[in-house]
Amino acid sequence: MSQAELTQTESDALKGVVAELSAEKLYDKCIELANNLWWTWQPDVFNLFRDLDPIRWRQLDHNPIALLKEFTPERLELRAAEMVLYSRINHAYRRLKEYLSTKDTWSATHAGVLGSRPVAYFSAEFGIHESLPIYSGGLGVLSGDHVKSASGLGVPLVAIGLFYDQGYFKQHLDVDGYQHEEYMDTKVENLPMKPAISPDGTPITISIDTRSGTLKAKLWKMNVGRVKLFLLDCDVDGNKPEDRELTSRLYGGDERTRIRQELVLGVGGMRALKALGITPGVYHLNEGHSAFASLEGMRERIQEDGLPYEDAMRDVARQTIFTTHTPVPAGHDRFDAGLIEEHLGPLRDAMGISHDQLMGLGRVEPQNENETFCMTVVGLKLSRRANAVSQLHGHVSRRMWAHLWPWRVEEEIPIGHITNGVHVPSWVAWQMLQLYDRHFPSGWYSRMGEADFWQNIHSVDPGELWETHATLKNLLLQFVRRRVSRQCRRRGESDEAVERARTLLDPNILTIGFARRFATYKRADLLLDDPDRLDEIVNSTTRPVQFIFSGKAHPKDEPGKAKIREIFNLRNDERFRHRIVFVEDYDINVGRHLIQGVDVWLNNPRRPLEASGTSGQKVVLNGGLNCSILDGWWAEAHDGNNGFAIGNGRTHSSVERQDERDGEQLYRVLENEVVPLFYDRDVDGLPREWIKRMMNSIGTLAWRFSAHRMVMDYTRLAYVPAAGGLSCDMSQF
């Protein structure tokens, strides 16, 4: 071989090595992006993963790790070259690095005291994204949004939850509309989590002694932007077979399963933090599921610091924030004395207290031996700051728990409220985000909890806003047709039924969405009380209306399942077949499409049983209007010009009479307000007054009900005071 040929060979080999290194580096950047859930609220990164393989992206539930496993570095590089993705990948990677390294955050100015002693945020579920199925509904999505906004604001916070390897169930309806539940095994290797490591470099496993044996759990770590999310998992060697399954399913099993899950979450979560070397300055217990954490905190103070029981109680309560989420009695977990002694007996021994003292912490009347142990009661007793999740829910909660403070009048019961909000970047459609970017001042994205920025919506051309909404509505209808036709085929229905599903719904017709958990108090069937009147509304020759329903009922909730069947089977009625549709398997993905594309979001719970509700807040961001009972967040949000109210906020002593009255008011508001306003068009075909109401909705509500505002409220009014970071507080004097 000549020297020239040798040189050329070496040159080709060098190019091959460089290309291989380049491919590996590109692949590694994509993997790093996929392993931080920051991408879930970055539309450009989401679109980047989708463009690698749109079909598989959809089939894999938008899971980038599972998608990347189907690529070699070389194939990824070829696809990147084909789709011109190099600069997009590098830009996304650089943005992630900048996001994680920046110190100039809202929290750095307003919550410095938390820097060395962060907030520990406990929740039984976290709804971050559909590819991570460790949530069931509103509570989990609220927790996920809380964590995301804490990341965006730079609030030092670590989150503690449970890893459910079968998650919540997949919903399938049979031909008769009966709900069937299917549980899927989640592949850990396809999730962005790694074993949590202690400061000495070993994987963390925690143990909890009970009267019936020792429970063990390993710890996983996920990155949600700047926030670390730690998940406890009982599928470990050393546990009994039934205990290895303990954290398999969310909200599954009997009371014994529930108390053991909550023992792992609360006590196990506290021990996990200790094993991680994290000393929180604040403990935020999101709902009663994690209330055992306070008992473990007291044990630590008693055993390790030598504090007397009463001092340990005061010390823990001073640092604890407790959030209650439900005014429905069934939503508050209660356990009998036998279950408490079996699971908390060793902890009680370590604290040096009697069984009666322990039971008293969870009772409204400590000496009442017939009263069970309530997780909400212990959460309220062992916290100095407690809150409901809307103003109305605050009133309801103070009345509900007034017996805990019999010496106080109801107005002085120490339960405040911080109204829930939603994480704007997670729920605003990319098309709406583009519109906001064009018309809002630079920097609005990092200050979305401030009112002034959102007033720029009034400078947007009405036609542009309407066209953007029309685009989103078309995308929603395409999604619904795909899902429903696929569901028809799975059930073995006729080709005619499948084809009919592919042409469902009309983009020119007023489209109303209703999607949530099918609990009976949410009254999904309120519209169905007068089928003839409903027929006149949906099949009007000049102003028709169409409805999209979705939602799951708890596996043990037969009345909720019956409501699903009733709505689903409207497809067998020729009057409603083309106007009312039910979409199976409600999850974050289905919810995202619905809240981004509907004209109106319908919410008609039995007041005052909706603590807050957040789905309607997501609709606001995308130009949809709310039509709701004056309950939860809507009771403090509606001003007469930013949506529609059902009724006047009054309740009847008779549930039957209340339902009858609310049903009549719902029909009236649809017939007399919603439908006429939507179809009142000018010469350009624009519903000017409707668009004005859309702008009023965005301008008055988007900032108030954002998770950024919510987390700022928690930080200023709860976290900083609990951590001892106030420079002045004269409110007690």
From TrEMBL:
One family name in Pfam for this protein: Phosphorylase
Domain DUF3417: 32-132
InterPro entries linked: Agluc_phsphrylas, Glyco_trans_35, Glycogen/Maltodextrin_Phosph, Glycogen_phosphorylase_DUF3417
Keyword Transferase (UniProt): no
Any one GO BP annotation for this protein: carbohydrate metabolic process
Entry keywords, A to Z: Allosteric enzyme, Pyridoxal phosphate
Record-listed N6-(pyridoxal phosphate)lysine modification sites: K618
GO MF: glycogen phosphorylase activity; pyridoxal phosphate binding
Catalytic activity: [(1->4)-alpha-D-glucosyl](n) + phosphate = [(1->4)-alpha-D-glucosyl](n-1) + alpha-D-glucose 1-phosphate
Family: Belongs to the glycogen phosphorylase family.
Name of the protein this chain belongs to: Alpha-glucan phosphorylase
Organism: Blastopirellula marina DSM 3645
